[in-house]
Amino acid sequence: MGIISTCKLLLVSVGFTAAFMPVIMTTGTGTFLQSSKDTNTNTVEESRVSASSSLNHVDGIEALSSSYSTFLLDMWGVMHNGSVPYEGVVDTIQTLKDANKRLIILSNSSKRVGNAKKMLNKLGFNEEDFEQIITSGEISYRMLCGDDTLECSTWSVLQDLIVQKKKKVFVLGSGDGDEDYCKSSGWTLSSIEDADLIIARGTFTINNGGGSDNVVNKKDDGEEEYFRVLNESLEIAARKNVPMLVTNPDKVRPDEGLPPMPGAIGDSYEKILYLGGSSQTQAQSLVKRIGKPYPEVYELALSNCDDPGTAVMVGDALETDVTGGAKAKCATAWVVNDGIHSASVDELGEGNYEKGAETVLVNFNEQKEYVGDDVLRPSYVAKHFRW
């Protein structure tokens, strides 16, 4: 099978059709293979899941309040579903605020923080209740600007491009503000042939800003052509070892059908680089993911926290929220009845959410290798983010 065919197989099957496919995800301590498909078609023998789950289930967030002073909160899948806040969440935020808890939002949104604030206000939250609102898109933007005031680790590959004034970018975008995002940070949109960098911030458009009449390829205009251009572009990029900045490492979005996110493209591109002859180390170095579970967002969130053990990460996704919180030495609270794993928990638990949560977690741990031989285990499990 040639590289083009291999690329197509990877890109169509990783997230974009939600079919099972092992993809590479890099962590600070190595690489693990993790299915981009959720666990809803995997099963484990019932005997391997105890009738009374050994996970630490709590009735609500009140059970955590006395133990933690800082709450790191995911947005989509914990606080809201993209359209409305989940029941009880607005009141829970207010109760935590009244108890003088530090509330910090950690979002893997590719957009800048202003967009997150607009979303919060629209859904009935008060942005002033949060000490920090951190989006992966905002951190990525500041990195693209060469901001040396960021209180987190940076990416030497990107810094070198900025110093050398190599600032032509090929954009895989959402179709919403992609051009302004790049231009206002000092970069020029480019064709893939001339690009110094790829930015993966969406899975809806390909902005091949090379001056041709058909500059923007939209997936809505035809998926076959979109995937053809995407595969062709990534193959060209891989031959030139063009680095990629992934501004949202999520692989799927917690909507019906689990539609794909930029993390799926990043994983595919890293695999393409490796299949094309790059060493594993080189392939990893050329794909930088900003957001959970990677350290930059946690470094910023915990910059004023003397002890990460006084913080708890509340999230719905094992691979990003819970993994990232655990690696940052925080406690973790896994919300299972809303968000990305909710359908699997319901299906595999057959109405018993404790059994479903245990099964999903067992499956997740069996399908990945990361942080040596450590097994991921959230500190707490809750049905919802409610008091």
Automatic annotation (TrEMBL):
Database matches in Gene3D superfamilies: HAD superfamily/HAD-like
Signal sequence annotation: 1-19
GO molecular function ontology, one term from the record: phosphatase activity
Keyword vocabulary terms for this entry: Signal
SUPFAM superfamilies with a match to the protein in the record: HAD-like
Organism: Chaetoceros debilis
Keyword Lyase on entry: no
Protein name as catalogued: Uncharacterized protein
GO cellular component terms, A-Z: chloroplast
Top-level division of the source organism's lineage: Eukaryota
